[in-house]
Design goal:
alpha/beta, three-stranded antiparallel sheet, 33% helix, binds adenosine-5'-triphosphate
Amino acid sequence: MTHSIPASSAAALHLALEAVEVVAGYGARTILHGLDLAVAPGEIYALLGANGAGKTTTLGLFLGFVRPSSGRVRVNGIDPGVDPTRARRQLAYIPENVALYEHLSARENVAYLLDLAGEKQDARAIGEALSTAGLDSAAYERRVSGFSKGMRQKVSIALALARKVPALLLDEPTSGLDPQATAEFSRLLGVLRAQDVAILMVTHDLLGAAEVADRIGFIDGGTLIDEATASGAERFDVRALHRRYAAQGTLP
Ligand SMILES: Nc1ncnc2c1ncn2[C@@H]1O[C@H](COP(=O)(O)OP(=O)(O)OP(=O)(O)O)[C@@H](O)[C@H]1O
């Protein structure tokens, strides 16, 4: 399969996330059967597929948790199978349910998680990251234990911004978000894209993906079966995509 990386950006010459003909799985069980997927800096890629299609396994590939038996995986040019620590330094991973230190404030979480990543930053830089991530300033010093999913995501995104990572992996970011929080989340992804972050987002939400993604990929049985690229004012023909992929069980 050929990839239609946006040619407008010089940065597109280099891929932040790349999987080429990847075969991978768990033990003797193969889940990914020759997966081809690439995300350029400043691109939002939404990966859709039925339950068990291999979406989370694909994220695990870039994180170095899932080792390919053949094929090529690169994160900003680094092979996570060979050097997972260095590969993970290029990434921020935001799981469906963001885990934070519940008794620490938003600011303390970012400071502490930065510390753990060996990337200490001053209070001003952390405040700026929280502000860019769209967290209400009244919440900076509050314990995160009472935070909503949307607020937790903002803390994670502030951490990604402070770390200045080139790539962001998101697993089901909009499930359980209300429409306003979903719209705010989409706006945030736009901010990250403008900073040339490569974003790979796993989702079941075709409509949400169509609003924010530059490309949508469909995975079935561990293989990328199709890709659609945003174009024109309408961006994607959501109805046609839905008809095509819902019928074969790739969409809920
Ligand atoms: N750690 C694991 N060990 C063994 N099998 C696993 C493991 N994790 C996932 N699987 C299996 O791999 C297959 C693909 O799972 P994966 O989580 O990648 O799918 P998915 O597309 O993310 O699905 P969902 O939409 O349900 O999250 C499934 O059959 C799942 O049971």
